[in-house]
Amino acid sequence: MAIFVLLIAAALIACALPSEAAGPSPNQIKRLVTFGDSYSDVVLAGDNGTAWPIWTAIYGDFTLYPFARAGATCSQSLTPRVFPPVFQSQLPTYFAEVANHSISVPPEETVYTLWIGTNDVGVGELIDGQQNPGVTLVDTIQCKMDWITTLYETGARNFIMQNMLNLQDVILYQADSYPNKYWTAERNTSEWHIFMTELVASANKLTELMLKDLAPTLPGAHIGLFDSHKLFTDIHNNPSKYLNGTVPFNVTGAISSCVYPLNSNISAVTPDCTNAEGSAQDSYLWFDELHPSQQSDRVLARELTAGIKQQSSEFLTWLT
Ligand SMILES: *[C@@H]1O[C@H](CO)[C@@H](O)[C@H](O)[C@H]1NC(C)=O
Ligand SMILES: *[C@@H]1O[C@H](CO)[C@@H](O)[C@H](O)[C@H]1NC(C)=O
Ligand SMILES: *[C@@H]1O[C@H](CO)[C@@H](O)[C@H](O)[C@H]1NC(C)=O
Ligand SMILES: *[C@@H]1O[C@H](CO)[C@@H](O)[C@H](O)[C@H]1NC(C)=O
Ligand SMILES: *[C@@H]1O[C@H](CO)[C@@H](O)[C@H](O)[C@H]1NC(C)=O
Ligand SMILES: *[C@@H]1O[C@H](CO)[C@@H](O)[C@H](O)[C@H]1NC(C)=O
């Protein structure tokens, strides 16, 4: 009898769960806290203009607390660099600011975003084997999950994980790449292109599976996955849907394109640069050999805002 009652109770719970709405309600979110690398840095903006977190705050009418910093990886203990990593710098700064009340983050109305990985897999790390010994892609993705649990334990409840964009399409990792400010040494560009395609696809699948594993273990949390890869691939393949500058669409080159001599010291030589100016810039997918353009960032902000406000589920999927 008791077992029977339990079974009925379990069945009722199983029926009740799917009807619980995934994601915050449309007007619930008022504050945006961002973590990541130069793609999201609002001071050293990768697009050399206004970074997407600022556009998102404008479009969504959110108060913005930006912690992402150029050059960052997820953790210094996995993929060490001289730039401020999420775990050893950005999170401690966030916690210090919460503690001294310079920011206010009521759990219900605050959403946290993380867009990281470009530097973890990129030059100086996984692609050329300079991560700490034994560290793999699995560890760098686990680190992103640890970011969620670390914040959850301190009360945070709304999270958006932004997956990696199609890095194989940025100039640095194209098969016909040229020596640029991020890498002037000799390399096999075809090999890098192939390897980066694999790294990004694997990282994004791991992220999705590990998030789906983690989400049900965090009661009361809303966890969303923003598909940057799908969005930037779509801009790449269908630029007319997104780009709006005054010259023909350009999804292979950069607004600021600078060719360096092979094997040169970038601080000691003058590169050969071609720059697109003014309204022509909005025809470009990329700003330089590694970063999205400002128009790409506006599109990202528009789609992210629509996902947060539950007006579109094209790129943002709420798992819980
Ligand atoms: C609060 O902490 C942050 C991060 O350590 C620091 O930059 C800021 O100056 C502090 N503000 C106050 C009012 O103490
Ligand atoms: C570069 O890598 C590609 C793809 O693996 C390979 O086909 C090609 O032979 C390599 N080129 C050189 C010069 O090693
Ligand atoms: C795109 O921009 C790059 C860099 O300025 C240039 O070399 C290339 O010719 C452009 N491509 C098209 C299709 O306009
Ligand atoms: C980058 O931004 C600065 C400041 O607005 C500007 O002077 C510079 O021309 C921009 N670079 C390019 C390549 O547009
Ligand atoms: C690169 O050039 C800068 C400026 O000339 C110089 O200070 C630095 O030592 C050089 N680095 C290397 C590795 O040669
Ligand atoms: C392109 O569209 C954005 C809005 O997404 C707008 O802010 C920008 O001014 C437009 N660019 C041009 C050159 O019209």
TrEMBL record:
<feature type="signal peptide">
    <location>
        <begin position="1"/>
        <end position="21"/>
    </location>
</feature>
<dbReference type="InterPro" id="IPR036514">
    <property type="entry name" value="SGNH_hydro_sf"/>
</dbReference>
<dbReference type="Pfam" id="PF00657">
    <property type="entry name" value="Lipase_GDSL"/>
</dbReference>
<dbReference type="InterPro" id="IPR001087">
    <property type="entry name" value="GDSL"/>
</dbReference>
<keyword id="KW-0732">Signal</keyword>
<dbReference type="InterPro" id="IPR051058">
    <property type="entry name" value="GDSL_Est/Lipase"/>
</dbReference>
<dbReference type="GO" id="GO:0016788">
    <property type="term" value="F:hydrolase activity, acting on ester bonds"/>
</dbReference>
<protein>
    <submittedName>
        <fullName>GDSL lipase/acylhydrolase</fullName>
    </submittedName>
</protein>
<keyword id="KW-0378">Hydrolase</keyword>
